[in-house]
Design goal:
Length: 237
């Protein structure tokens, strides 16, 4: 048996899920901005209490490793590391773009994605970066990666080949709105997909079965770009 707690907070959505052998048991999430530090630990406590569990009853903790918001990733990873250290259990890291694709597939199977067919399509999850830039990666409909994760500045030429391919391109994520006016091809479909810890459930279970764990002491989120601290403009003296 694999009882895995999953934490995702790479965007404005803060989410915690509990899963057993790749099946979702419980989920808590919120779209409150800048509230991850307050909400995530509470969600963990609520879920464990719901199933009368202690952290030591878990087999692993999985966290969305990014790319995404620097602050959100730091909060999620710090919480995950603390749980793993305290309970002496392994840490699993999941690509947040892959997790977003998993949510899209679940929504499609539930009939709430807004498209009739997904087989053969290319999936293009996008997480907002800044200005016209997004973090993105191409996948096939079985969530096999077709490209590396990139920080991509969107232009009229972005993903031209995929936009004109007969199989169709599915674009989603909180960065996808930036390209709605750029991608006008009829085979490009924009759908609403919200990041969630439930997207970590299946890849986390696969990683657990294959023994793919992170070094808890040295693991860092996948920021993709260097974080730059801006000095305050306020005068202290």
């Amino acid at each position: 048996m694999a009882l895995i707690l999953c934490i995702e907070a790479g965007t404005d959505v803060g989410s915690v899920a509990l899963a057993k052998n790749g099946t979702l048991l419980s989920l808590r999430e919120s779209m409150e901005e800048k509230q991850h530090a307050r909400n995530l630990a509470v969600y963990v406590s609520e879920i464990l209490k719901e199933y009368d569990l202690d952290a030591k009853d878990l087999d692993a903790v999985a966290v969305g490793k990014g790319p995404g918001s620097y602050t959100g990733l730091r909060i999620a990873v710090s919480l995950a590391k603390g749980l793993c250290y305290g309970a002496s259990i392994p840490l699993i890291a999941v690509n947040s773009l892959e997790a977003l694709c998993r949510v899209a597939l679940e929504d499609f199977e539930a009939g709430i994605l807004g498209i009739d067919e997904i087989e053969g399509m290319r999936l293009l999850p996008m997480i907002d970066a800044r200005r016209m830039e997004v973090y993105c990666q191409l996948f096939d409909a079985q969530v096999h990666p077709l490209t590396e994760v990139t920080a991509h500045v969107l232009t009229e030429e972005s993903f031209r080949e995929e936009r004109t391919a007969p199989e169709g391109l599915l674009v989603f994520g909180n960065g996808s709105g930036k390209c709605r006016e750029l991608f006008k091809e009829p085979n490009v479909h924009f759908v609403e997909v919200v990041p969630s810890a439930r997207g970590l459930v299946k890849p986390a279970f696969e990683a657990y079965r294959s023994g793919k764990f992170e070094d808890t002491a040295y693991f860092e989120p996948f920021y993709l770009k260097n974080f730059v601290v801006k000095p305050s403009s306020k005068k202290i003296f």
